[in-house]
Amino acid sequence: MHDSDRVMENADAVLRRVSEGNRARIARRRARRRSRLGATSKRLALVTVALLLLMVGAGMVTPIGIGGAMLFALAAAIAWALVIFGSVEPEARVADLAAPDIARLPARTESWLEQQRPALPAPAITLVDAIGLKLDTLAPQLATLDPATPAAADLRKLIGEELPELITGYRRVPTALRTGAARSGLNPDRQLLDGLAVVDEELARMAERIADGDLHRLATQGRFLELKYRGEGN
């Protein structure tokens, strides 16, 4: 009974992690979708206002008539189509993950990982969701991180090079051979899971190191202000 209870508890814990990861992933996708829709709506409104002002200005110079109104409608339709098609999120590529813009790297990596999910085994998807959560945590920190620092270089190498190399290497293995024993004694599925677990753990350590640096700078600045202003008053 004791062993069976422990198995059930472990199974429940795994299910909770999967459920939490799925909810977080869905929330991130919805947030990105809302952001894209909001940006598209603003562009459509700006284009419409610009065309209306153009039509009004042209009407003040010369009557535009029915032909002018039809021309305006055609121009509006073309402009809206261009805005809508231009707002479609392009498919993420591995090359995008090597871009120097460290602040956008988490979002790009998450988008790329989302595309890889159908080709990954279920346990790997759970780890991918965990990595996505850590990327969300890192995103605000990276917005202010100096891209020339060693921390930025390490992070860019981990999620911009090593992580995609791990997954693309796994996907190159024929499906029928992914669960069989490899020369190293580990099958490709196991190697993928171990690699993703390492990435997940390293992301947690990187987030802590960056946070420690921020806390140290804050403490240093606070001490400087205290010595400068309170010290002068004593």
Describe this structure in words.
The protein is mainly α. It is 80% helix and 0% strand. The chain contains seven helices and no strands. The chain has helices at residues 2-61, 65-86, 94-97, 105-116, 122-142, 150-172, 188-233. It is flat and about 80 Å long. The model has no long low-confidence stretch (mean pLDDT 76).
Number of strands: 0
Radius of gyration based on Cα positions: 26 Å
Question: Mean pLDDT, as a whole number?
Answer: 76
Strand content: under 5%
Secondary-structure element pattern, one letter each: HHHHHHH
Count of helix runs: 7
User: What is the share of helical residues?
Assistant: over 70%
Question: Brief overview, please?
Answer:
By secondary structure, the chain is an all-alpha fold. It contains seven helices and no strands.
For the structure shown, list the relevant keywords:
234 residues; mainly alpha; 7 helices
Topology:
Blueprint: H1 2-61, H2 65-86, H3 94-97, H4 105-116, H5 122-142, H6 150-172, H7 188-233
Helix pairs in contact: 1-2, 1-5, 4-5, 4-6, 5-7, 6-7
